[in-house]
Design a protein that fits this description.
The protein is mainly α. The protein is built from twelve helices and two strands, in the order E-E-H-H-H-H-H-H-H-H-H-H-H-H. The protein has a two-stranded antiparallel ribbon.
């Protein structure tokens, strides 16, 4: 017939004779090899996603000797991965996770730096107040309490003021501890260094637990608050009543309570924003200071009753 392809072009193409004149473009599509059609169809899908292209239609129109469409034979039964259908939130999820992680680590570094500086002010206060009389020590303690109360409100209004109050708390509590630390250094210097080393290990261990755990520790913190009030009451009673091993009991219970507070505060640190840096630094500083005192009580001869 005049419309038939002469010569070799009238042979079977993929098991089917090319008959009829379909125009120049159709003949060119029919002369593509199977591999060419497969690659073109795959690339078309990768760039144009769901809607089939003319190349894909041509591939589906040509059948093999078994009667199956060429595309079904050559193309694996799965879609090529594309970004079609992914929204902005999906594409930026990884970036947001990385930004959040960087902010958390930045907050951790800032808080730990504030704790270290506050401890430095405490050491300065302890040195300055090593010969301080009892009356001045009580005044310094009351001043530290006032600064702590004011710090909670100042942290929401003025960060410089909050920082000033935080360092003032460290200095004033150093004045309170100065005479006692001077007595320990004169009587048993090793006890001070042992207490300092044990405090560092203790805070690191409990802080790591609080940072890593997925368990919500807020309920534990409420129970620890009441336990702290009970410990204070026990300490007051031990001042007037001779209780065997009162120092050891007091110190061990204090370590249990402030170990829980340490874990809770480090969990707060992991979940907090940058505006909470100063209050959390104050909490962790108080954890460190109390743990140090409890270890000092144990290492410095805690076998007797509290005086």
């Amino acid at each position: 017939m005049p419309g038939d392809l002469p010569g070799d072009r009238g042979e079977h193409l993929f098991g089917r004779r090319a008959v009829g004149h379909e125009g120049r473009d159709a003949a060119q599509r029919r002369l593509l090899t199977g591999e060419d059609l497969q690659l073109l169809a795959v690339e078309a899908r990768a760039h144009r996603a769901i809607k089939p292209t003319p190349i894909e239609v041509a591939a589906g129109a040509i059948t093999t000797s078994s009667g199956a469409p060429l595309e079904m034979v050559l193309t694996p039964p799965r879609r090529c991965p594309t970004t079609t259908g992914m929204g902005y939130e999906d594409l930026t999820a990884g970036q947001r996770v990385r930004s959040s992680s960087a902010a958390t680590h930045g907050l951790f570094g800032q808080v730990m730096g504030l704790v270290a500086v506050t401890i430095g002010f405490t050491a300065l206060g302890a040195y300055v107040g090593r010969d301080l009389s009892g009356g001045w020590g009580i005044a310094a303690f009351v001043g530290a309490l006032v600064c702590l109360i004011a710090l909670n409100g100042a942290s929401r209004r003025s960060e410089p003021l909050a920082l000033t109050l935080l360092f003032a708390v460290g200095l004033l509590l150093g004045l309170v501890l100065g005479p006692g630390l001077a007595a320990y250094v004169s009587a048993d210097p090793a006890a001070v260094w042992q207490a300092a080393g044990a405090t560092a290990l203790f805070i690191a261990a409990l802080g790591s637990y609080g940072w890593a755990t997925d368990r919500d520790l807020s309920g534990l913190a409420r129970g620890l608050f009441w336990a702290l009030l009970a410990l204070i009451a026990f300490g007051i009673v031990a001042l007037f009543v001779a209780i065997p091993g009162a120092n050891v009991i007091y110190a061990v219970l204090g370590l249990v309570i402030f170990g829980g507070f340490t874990a809770f505060d480090f969990q707060r640190l992991r979940r907090a924003g940058m505006d909470a840096a100063v209050p959390i630094a104050a909490s962790i500083f108080l954890d460190v200071l109390n743990v140090f005192q409890f270890f000092l009580l144990l290492f410095g001869g805690g076998g007797g009753s509290r005086d």
